[in-house]
Amino acid sequence: MRFDIIIAGAGPVGCIIAQKCAAILKWKVLILDKRDHIAGNCKDEYKHGVLVHTYGPHYFRTSNDDLLEYLSQFTEWIPGKYFVKSKVGKKLYPFPINLDTLELFFKKNFDSDSAQKFLDTKKVRNANPQNSEEFVLSKVGTELYKSFYLGYTLKQWGMHPKDLSPSVCGRIPIRFNRDSRYVDSTHQLMPKDGYTEMYKKMIAHENITLMLEVDYFEARQKHESKYATVYTGPIDTYFDYSLGKLPWRSLEFEFREYKQEYKQECVQINYPNETPYTRSVEAKHITGQKSDNTVICNETPVDNGDAYYPIPHKSSQDLYLDYEELAKEETLNKHVYFAGRLATYKYINMDQAMESAFEMFDRIKSTHFDK
Ligand code: UDP
């Protein structure tokens, strides 16, 4: 069959581009996914009657009003109560580190000024940190680094923070106030009926054909696209690993039901130190669902499995840049566009991935439609 555009991957990026091509350009769109569901890793589903995040917690946040307005066509919202604690020793500490964390940890009272002065005595001075260890040490010093960051990062990446870009631990704010939200963004919201429902509505358009459990590399033998293809899978897979395999970090999820209303006090508890898993997630805290039972998901990072995280390390970034050259040729010669976290090997958040879908749509429109 012939479509105007073929989109490989029905995650956030694929769904947004599909919706815009169908609704704005009136193109016939084929969107396919090798998995048996849409929404990519944002998928949510009911387990034991409880709405859970299948592939780990997804906290929607953005400071982009246009993005929020766009998504609001497909969902209503509930407040995003993204509160996380970190278990160090026997205690649960508010995380990211804020004044309450510092008071509990150092057993002192602080205000913003005294906390900063106190940490000035702990910091390992470094105006230009080159890696995540140097970055955290330069902000909070050794004790907090060792308690909250080192073990978590070793587990999460199977790598030492010394070997990871400063941006990895730099994702987490450090606050000198009592704000205990996990992230800093103007809008922190959850889609009222979940992510999967939101994406279902997004791609429910007469111009969109959805095919699930279909491999793109087989599908492209059968289906042609008139104008363009968007590929959102791992970039090394697209090129058949011709330059070597890119390293990816994967995750294993263990879901367990409990016959009680809530099992933990907030949506996410981080375990930097003892356990093999990094965090336990009780999605009920953010979905707003009321039920007598609950489900906890423990998340363990692993080397093998589906690609979840690109590795923010120089050697993998260099290999990606070589793949990016191949990708540019492919775009030029075959009108195949590479978009999203896996195809651009970038550790981006959901809202950044969505913004990249907007940009990709504009690019495709100006190249193939406006001419
Ligand atoms: N991190 C940490 N301790 C924590 C939480 C995060 O050291 O309790 C570090 C770790 O290296 C992690 C990074 O900060 O990979 C980013 O954390 P985030 O929660 O943003 O990761 P994601 O939700 O994307 O897995």
TrEMBL record:
<protein>
    <submittedName>
        <fullName>UDP-galactopyranose mutase</fullName>
    </submittedName>
</protein>
<dbReference type="InterPro" id="IPR015899">
    <property type="entry name" value="UDP-GalPyranose_mutase_C"/>
</dbReference>
<dbReference type="Pfam" id="PF13450">
    <property type="entry name" value="NAD_binding_8"/>
</dbReference>
<feature type="domain" description="UDP-galactopyranose mutase C-terminal">
    <location>
        <begin position="148"/>
        <end position="347"/>
    </location>
</feature>
<dbReference type="Pfam" id="PF03275">
    <property type="entry name" value="GLF"/>
</dbReference>
